[in-house]
Amino acid sequence: MNRISKILIASAFATMSFAGASYAADGAAMNWPAHLDETLATFDQNFNVRSLSDTNNDDDFADVDGLPLSAGSVQLVQAAIRANEPLMLRMDERGIDVNDVVNAQRAADGSMTFWLR
Question: Does pTM surpass 0.85?
């Protein structure tokens, strides 16, 4: 391979690495508790419900996404859910008590997983 080809391939890999890091940072910001309440206030997609007890049944694999947020963040998340009337109605239909929500995480497809205590 000649030098020009090597340089082009190296620059392509470098560009992909930066793009991936940027995408990961955007995804983390979307789920970070500071932005999670903003996301939930207008959320209108499908959602899943998981229990914290489901995440701790297997000692070899604990689902860290299902860990409860800090008490202050939990209050913000619950307040944002309460402010979103259509979401509240759908949660009520499924028998979900908002006071039991201790975490939420948005998936790449736009859906949300709510973690309940």
Answer: no
